[in-house]
């Protein structure tokens, strides 16, 4: 291989080792704290807090399932490279949880728009019963 290719490969391995580890630690900690704060009793009646709680939980699952293989890839130990079903399951879980979390944030934005509307009918649409469905 060319020296620039070796250098790029080395840089990517180092990023997978250390940056992914930082993302795993801080992402897990942040989402766990979000879940703890948003699951408090007085926030359970707020539709937006419920949406953000589920979004944080899904993001936590995405980090716990998605990042460890990247960390292991830094040491060439990634099981998703050798086990076909692990690769497919990993991809499905990561992409579906990440997509659902993003869509829930979009729904929370719509909920905030509804609650800040000047029309009473729109404000009434933002309630905990609509979030449950």
UniProtKB/TrEMBL annotation:
Domain of life: Eukaryota
G-protein coupled receptors family 1 profile domain segment(s): 30-133
GO-annotated cellular components: membrane
Coiled-coil residue windows: none
Keywords noted in UniProt: Membrane, Transmembrane, Transmembrane helix
Record flagged with keyword Oxidoreductase: no
Cellular compartment(s): Membrane
Keyword check for Glycosyltransferase: no
Chief subcellular location: membrane
Gene3D superfamilies per record: Rhodopsin 7-helix transmembrane proteins
Transmembrane segments annotated in the record for this chain: 18-39, 51-71, 91-115
Protein name: G-protein coupled receptors family 1 profile domain-containing protein
